[in-house]
Automatic annotation (TrEMBL):
Coiled-coil stretches: none
CDD domains reported for this sequence: LDLa, MAM
SS bonds (residue pairs): 140-155, 366-381, 565-577, 572-590
UniProt keywords, alphabetically: Disulfide bond, Repeat
Record lineage: Eukaryota, Metazoa, Chordata, Craniata, Vertebrata
Pfam families (UniProt xref): Ldl_recept_a (PF00057), MAM (PF00629)
Annotated MAM domain residues: 1-112, 159-320, 384-557
The organism of origin for this protein: Stercorarius parasiticus (Parasitic jaeger)
This protein's GO CC annotations: membrane
Gene: Malrd1_0
Protein name per Swiss-Prot or TrEMBL: MALR1 protein
């Protein structure tokens, strides 16, 4: 079907109406191919007309000449319980010729779920009238998955929020930079944000969104706080929500869990960048032995096309906590540890757990295994996994530059050193010798660590090191991704540093191409050492060295079990248990080499 515009009359409108449809299921999508070409071809839009609603809902828009090509549009219709029609409206501006066309209209997954003869098992729910058998995770999620509403009957309203009547029992954080906004219909900025809510699928419904336009600046954050929940114990509390991340400059949405009220908690989930013009469902499984709270944080990108939406947030298998979370005193650096040590009977050779006052051996501090209930023995250590997002260096530090800055009042701006960087901050031509995208998110917004060769001189060295690691296990290794591209790349080394000795574990020099490359370095059993990444500068600025996604894998030391080894295990001379498959494999799995003894 096409419209050939060849007239000087201004603002002509052509309409194409669909048949009337009775209803759709919750996963319904509409797709079609469109052609919109011509210097003043004008806008086109698809509208949803629902019986009983005066206001139409815009589902899709094309604003201008899209060139001599067919493009595909995918529209998320979702559950529409009332009869409806679709209207394709075309406006032509006159003055010049233009051609608009549509083809291959397809509805997918639009039927209600089929009836079932039986529906057994704790993970299934049998719908009352339609007799459909659906996943129990879809119960009480604010979406009519059954088609008769029975999966949304008898739900606790305190565990749900569709934002139709406000924020329910969610709250805006007062410690963030700005607030989430409750809205109907499209967000104020074109080409970003939702056009409609998720609950009703129309412009009548409400949702929350994070405005990315001015005066908000890059990395400003808006945080939404859930009500408090009782400990889930051995059970699981399930958090379901729908998010919308559409726009070229969408940055980041993340979910945290906390058990202390004046901390940001720990990360449960995050998503970066443009995810398309659609609502996406996310399910998170939460376990906690303490009362807890969920935080949903949106972060602004560096442009106005970065709006993020939230809707239909619900909890399953959770109960509300009638109390307050504890607070914890903080040091001047803002880290969440008590200002003074608790009462304890620890010796100078032992570490004091910050929350309980329990004592653990110093060799258990920074060994990749939390021995304190609050994990404080691993708090001032290198993180097991580091992707440098949120500009977090995960415990890695530069001993030389920080020592110099502390002892002397000198300028360090032109020193060859490690820095956090990302593609979005590169100056013109810098992408020829520095990564344009990071490895974690594969976007220009993702962060990595790099040694900037525009500073320093030929042969300069930049080190970045872990704090001292007390002990590692027999299979410990470091996996990381490196980027070494440029005509004058120097070298990258991985070193192991003890009190009086530094040994080279891995090295690479010269240009390795314009991509991220994986590297793996075996550490094995070591004690009281540091890992150091050392970059050496080449002869000019055309050669930055970068690393990303550094992971310490299988690095926690072996534990002596409180049981005898099974028939499937080998008992090491030091009483450790290892799988019998690991015998005589040239790897010191026992940590005392007894699994490699010729007498086995």
């Amino acid at each position: 079907m096409f419209i050939l515009k060849n007239s000087s009359s201004i603002s002509q409108i052509a309409q194409l109406r669909s048949p009337k449809f009775r209803q759709t299921g919750s996963n319904c999508t509409l797709s079609f191919w469109y052609y919109n070409s011509g210097q003043s071809v004008g806008a086109a839009e698809m509208q949803l007309l629902v019986d009983g609603l005066k206001q139409s809902t815009v589902l899709w828009r094309a604003y201008y000449n899209m060139g001599n090509q067919w493009l595909k549009a995918v529209i998320q219709l979702g559950r529409l319980p009332r009869p409806f029609q679709l209207s394709l409206d075309k406006i032509s501006l006159g003055f010049y010729d233009g051609v608009s066309a549509i083809d291959d209209i397809t509805f997918e997954n639009c039927a209600l779920p089929p009836p079932a003869l039986s529906c057994e098992g704790p993970s299934r729910f049998w719908c009352r009238d339609t007799k459909a058998c659906i996943d129990s995770l879809l119960v009480c999620d604010l979406v009519d998955n059954c088609g008769d509403g029975s999966d949304e009957d008898n739900c606790n309203p305190d565990l749900q929020c569709n934002f139709e009547n406000g924020l329910c029992n969610w709250e805006q954080d007062v410690e963030d930079d700005f607030n989430w906004i409750r809205i109907q219909g499209p967000t104020p900025t074109v080409n970003t944000g939702p056009l409609k809510d998720h609950t009703t699928g129309t412009a009548r419904g409400h949702y929350l969104y994070m405005e990315s336009s001015e005066p908000h600046q890059f990395q400003d954050k808006a945080i939404l706080l859930s009500p408090l929940f009782n400990p889930s114990g051995n059970g699981t509390c399930i958090f379901r929500f729908h998010y919308h991340m559409f726009g070229k400059q969408v940055y980041k949405l993340s979910v945290f869990q906390r058990t202390v009220s004046n901390t940001k908690g720990w990360l449960l989930w995050y998503k970066f960048g443009n995810q398309g013009n659609r609502w996406i469902r996310q399910t998170l499984y939460i376990s906690s032995f303490k009362p807890f709270q969920i935080l949903v944080k949106g972060i602004v990108g560096d442009g106005f096309t970065g709006d993020i939406g939230l809707d239909d947030m619900s909890f399953l298998g959770c109960t509300l906590y009638n109390g307050n979370l504890p607070t914890i005193s903080t040091t001047t650096s803002g880290t969440s540890v008590p200002a003074t040590l608790p009462m304890n009977n620890c010796t100078e050779e032992e570490f004091v757990c910050r929350a309980s006052g329990h004592c653990v051996q110093m060799i258990q501090k920074c060994d990749f295994r939390p021995d304190c209930s609050d994990k404080s023995d691993e708090s001032a250590c290198v993180m097991e996994v580091c992707n440098f997002e949120d500009k977090n260096q995960c415990g890695w530090y530069q001993p030389d530059s920080e020592q110099m800055a502390g002892n002397y009042s000198i300028r360090t701006t032109n020193v060859f050193k490690w820095e956090l960087g990302r593609g979005a901050n590169l100056y013109p031509e810098q992408e020829k010798h520095c990564p344009l995208i990071d490895h974690t998110t594969c976007t220009e917004e993702g962060w990595y660590l790099f040694a900037d060769s525009s500073n320093g001189e030929f042969g300069d060295i930049a080190d970045i090191a872990t704090p001292v690691i007390s002990l590692t296990g027999p299979k410990c290794k470091i996996i990381f991704w490196n980027h070494m591209n440029g005509s004058t790349i120097g070298s990258l080394e991985v070193l192991c540093k003890t009190r009086n000795k530094t040994s080279k574990l891995w090295t690479q020099s010269g240009s390795q191409g314009p991509q991220w490359n994986r590297a793996e370095v075996f550490l094995g059993i070591r004690s009281n050492f540091q890992v150091v990444f050392r970059a050496k500068r080449g002869v000019s600025y055309m050669g930055d060295v970068a690393v990303d996604d550094i992971t310490f894998e299988d690095c926690s030391p072996l534990l002596i079990p409180d049981r005898p080894c099974t028939s499937e295990e080998f008992t090491c001379a030091n009483k450790y248990c290892i799988p019998k498959d690991n015998l005589c494999d040239f790897v010191n799995d026992c940590a005392d080499n007894s699994d490699e003894s010729p007498t086995i």
